Amino acid sequence: MRWAVADGWTITRRDLAHWANQPGQILAGLLFPVMIVLMFGYLFGGGMTVPGGGDYREFLMPGMFALTMVFGLETTFAAVSADAARGVTDRFRSLPMASSAVVTGRAAADLLNSALTLAVLVGCGLAVGWRAEAGPGRAALAVGLVLLLRFALLWLGIWLGLVVGNPEALVAVQILVWPVGFLSSALVSPATMPGWLGAIAEWNPLSATAAAARELFGNPGWGGDSWAAQHAVTLAVAWPLLITAVFFPLSIRAFRRLGG
């Protein structure tokens, strides 16, 4: 275990060094969610109605925190598939290192990147009038749930990157991620959707995290009387744990089977 942690940290430092040498990529990743916040908060926000009343930007920000974690899956997929296509991953497999180090190192680096993105989004939210109304303790729990969702989706992105191994397939991943991201309560209430579509949106893992974050931050929520709406915090923990339990071992297995 000690060597696995040490090897994983070496891979993490390698990924962080790449970002330090290519800061433009990080800046672009930080600016994109800020632009989404400004677009929905100011261009479309005037036409949005929050169920039960309340400011739309306060409704929007917890949803954007969660939505940005989902969009991060594309970054993970692109990095992992690029390493696989260039033979970097095969080189790692030939070295005397823990087989889990490549995937855990990648996960740690991307989680640090997501924490930075979340910090920038929080600053953007404060600038546009969003506030955490329920106190710092509950706000910290909300941030933890948002990062837990990102941690779970890391393993899905790593697994897809290892299995596909083709960076050009990023478009296909975007086709998967964007509908899942918008078919949720991140930006609008599921009550505004057709009944069957709203039910799917309510059970979306992203919706659970967004709704739980709104509850913990003390921001306006979309309400609802379904089980998913009444137990958002429970689902915000259960969904990431389930996703991790499925895709973490699949990621390790996919890495071990490369070139086999």
UniProtKB/TrEMBL annotation:
UniProt cross-references to PROSITE patterns, sorted A to Z: ABC_TM2 (PS51012)
Keywords: Antibiotic resistance, Cell membrane, Membrane, Transmembrane, Transmembrane helix, Transport
One of the record's GO cellular component terms: ATP-binding cassette (ABC) transporter complex
Pfam families: ABC2_membrane
Transmembrane spans: 26-44, 64-86, 107-128, 140-162, 169-188, 227-250
Protein transport is among the record's keywords: no
Residues of the ABC transmembrane type-2 domain: 24-258
UniProt-annotated location(s): Cell membrane; Membrane
Primary location recorded for the protein, binned into one broad class: membrane
InterPro entries attached to this UniProt entry: ABC2_TM, ABC2_TM_bact-type, ABC_2_transport, Nod_factor_ABC_transporter
Molecular function GO labels: ABC-type transporter activity
The keyword Lipoprotein appears for this protein: no
Gene Ontology biological-process annotations: response to antibiotic
Membrane topology: Multi-pass membrane protein
Domain of life: Bacteria
Family: Belongs to the ABC-2 integral membrane protein family.
PANTHER family per record: NODULATION PROTEIN J
The protein's name in its UniProt record: Transport permease protein
Native source organism of the sequence: Acrocarpospora pleiomorpha
The organism's taxonomic lineage, starting at the top: Bacteria, Bacillati, Actinomycetota, Actinomycetes, Streptosporangiales
